Automatic annotation (TrEMBL):
InterPro entries (alphabetical): Homeodomain-like_sf, HTH-type_TetR-like_transc_reg, HTH_TetR, TetR_C_34
Keywords: DNA-binding
Domain HTH tetR-type: 15-75
DNA-binding listed as a keyword: yes
Stored PROSITE patterns: HTH_TETR_2 (PS50977)
Protein name in the entry: TetR/AcrR family transcriptional regulator
Pfam family, one: TetR_N
DNA-binding region: 38-57
Length: 216
């Protein structure tokens, strides 16, 4: 057994090992996409046995739920800072969407959360992630409503949720796998069906921001 596989006994060592697992999972996901990462791959990248990873996270999905919660909190802080300088609805939409484009891991996680990452996890792991998400959405909704957006807080809540849902939907479409990239390179008509992420997301979010008050 190598030194890397020795059990961490002190609290600080356990924390270091947990962070090493999260960082390995983050780097693998950025390199090859969340869907392609296995628990064994994370263990190998962290220099641990697969069974050792299980002492910190029950499943691969739980690792990525923790990373998803981190991404949401960091994104929320970035958006909040930009909303404090927003001068109109266009600036509010830009704050929500441009920050998502800058976080490819979050967009990838958004696209995988409901379809796979919320499965095969403990109730505690799912609750912790969901609470983090709802806290961020609630905070940003209040800030969007306080900005010169013309939206009520409940409308702003819907808008923030739509922005993230739209990002999760658009990200895999606008970042296609190798087979589709080859097809698009050969067929311009098919390539036109591959949207540019940021313009498409901005259009969706702006349409909702303009339309929501009409539904009052």
């Amino acid at each position: 057994m190598t030194q890397g596989f020795l059990r961490a006994r002190r609290p600080e060592h356990k924390l270091q090992r947990r962070e090493a697992i999260l960082e390995a999972a983050r780097e693998l996901a950025l390199r090859s996409g969340v869907r392609a990462v296995s628990l064994g791959g994370v263990a190998a990248a962290a220099g641990l046995a697969k069974s050792n990873v299980g002492r910190y996270f029950g499943t691969r999905e739980e690792i990525y739920l923790v990373l998803a919660a981190e991404e949401w909190r960091e994104w929320g802080s970035e958006v909040a800072e930009r909303l404090g300088r927003a001068t109109g609805l266009a600036a509010v939409v830009a704050a929500l969407t441009e920050t998502l484009e800058a976080r490819p891991l979050m967009c990838d996680l958004l696209g995988n959360t409901a379809t796979s990452l919320e499965h095969n996890v403990s109730v505690e792991a799912a609750r912790a992630c969901k609470r983090a998400v709802l806290d961020v959405i609630g905070d940003l909704a209040a800030r969007v409503a306080a900005a010169p957006s013309g939206l009520t807080e409940s409308e702003a809540y819907e808008l923030v949720g739509l922005a993230t849902a739209g990002a999760g939907m658009l990200y895999p479409v606008s970042n296609p796998p190798a087979v589709l990239r080859e097809i698009y390179a050969e067929d311009p008509v098919m390539a036109a069906a591959c949207p540019a992420f940021l313009p498409a997301l901005k259009r969706i979010v702006m349409a909702a921001a303009v339309g929501l008050p009409a539904l009052r």
